[in-house]
Design a protein that fits this description.
Number of domains: 1
Number of helices: 5
Oligomer: single chain
Distance between the termini: 20 Å
Shape: globular
Strand order of the largest sheet: 3-2-1-6-4-7-5
Strand content: 25-35%
CATH topology: Alpha/beta knot
Number of strands: 7
């Protein structure tokens, strides 16, 4: 199973750095970002890149979500969106194993929902049991930890 974390549409330096820390803590290879603007574009990209580079990990910066779908052709695009979720995924069950082999897991870095055009690029999902949007870092941690544990069932936490 290959999972790529995508942070889309953020101006927050802290959200960008937090997502880089999620990538590092789960032993992933790369963080992909799209539609980064404002302070996140000015200083967040450099800070996240420095953090990832020190650990031998990568950062990909692309202008739009459609560019990610094109670059990672063949990957299933899953947009984590409470408002439009077609499926609810329980991270404590085998639901995560049904997500597919090659997955782009896209998290929204802003408070606004994905646009209809962005939603058309993939399948909106959310986390079963969460009654309120938890935020991109918390959502990523819940889903990715579960995916990583299912992909490597014998692995012990570091």
């Amino acid at each position: 199973m290959r999972v790529v974390l995508v942070l889309h549409n953020t101006s927050s330096v802290q959200k960008l750095v937090d997502m880089a820390k999620v990538v590092l803590s789960l032993g992933m290879d790369v963080l992909v970002t799209t539609k980064v603007y404002g302070a996140a574009a000015q200083s967040g990209i450099a800070e996240a890149y420095r953090l990832l580079l020190k650990s031998g990990k990568g950062l990909v910066v692309l202008p739009e979500l459609s560019d990610v779908a094109e670059v990672y052709r063949g990957f299933q695009v899953l947009l984590v969106d409470k408002e439009h979720a077609q499926d609810l995924i329980d991270p404590l069950s085998d639901d995560v194993t049904k997500l597919g082999e090659n997955v782009l897991l896209v998290f929204n870095g802003s408070d606004s929902p994905f646009t209809p055009q962005e939603l058309s690029l993939g399948r909106p999902i959310y986390i079963r049991g969460l009654s309120y949007r938890a935020g991109s870092s918390a959502e990523a941690s819940l889903l990715l930890y579960s995916l990583m544990r299912r992909a490597n069932p014998g692995a012990k936490p570091a």
